[in-house]
Input
Amino acid sequence: MKLKNFVSEFLNVTIKNDIEYTGMVDSVRPNTISFLDNPKFAKDINRNPNISVVLVREKDAALLQGNVETVIVENPKAALFSLHNEYCKKYLTYKVNKIAKSASIHASAYIAPEGVNIGENVIIAPNATILCGVEIGDNTTIGPNCVIGEDGFHVFEDLNATKRIVIHDGFVKIGKKVDIQASVTVDKGFMGRDTVIGDECKIDNAVHIAHRVHVGRKTLIASGACIAGSADIGENVWIGPHSVISNRVSICDNAKILIGSIVIRNIKKAISVSGNFAVEHAKHIKSQCS
Output
């Protein structure tokens, strides 16, 4: 069933504009149905030509302009994610697996029966789990006990006020010559933004990379680091042990996030930062000595 028809039936409304995808205000896919829960995001919706239909409360509908079609609902966020989940349950499918003959996959590893693309000379170690929606580039290694392609931690209350995890309909795309060591978890993307790990990245034990994160090529991520959802990590970045990068934070190329740093703001220069909350390392050291 086409998404437009499904939405019309699910919400019991008539919709004129085309709908091809569900998404949020940053959607890069055309003909997206989104939602306005907080009025401060109205400007972002108005600036995004990819959004064709918006679920919105009646009191906020006048904030939306242009060719956006509005659908009045009591709880826009619950309605959008509820219909997204129901549609995915019924109609989300993946392509047949494509696994190179030169790939080495340990007998104890689990490979999902569909939606997996494994390149040449890839090594999948014991007890690794590769789920639907994962692409692994040539000459990459996935270490023991890794879980690649799990749904991320995006929680919403459905139309019955029950907390649910959003079904993730995107991918994990891992580049070439990437080394991922033991017990790393990488969540897949959803709603038009995949999780991407660039070529030649090296990822230490027990790292967590959340949904929709982009990691630039040749970045190094040390043990215990956590990168929250939709973060953008540049190329050749160092992320030290047990550092935390908050959601939607951007870190520029060649920056260094030192051990135990908690990063909640964008890093716009190729500098070293440290501390909780992270600041330029020299400033952090000075503050500790004063």
User: Anything to note?
Assistant: The helical segments are 3-11, 42-47, 76-91, 281-289. The chain has two domains: 3-91, 98-289.
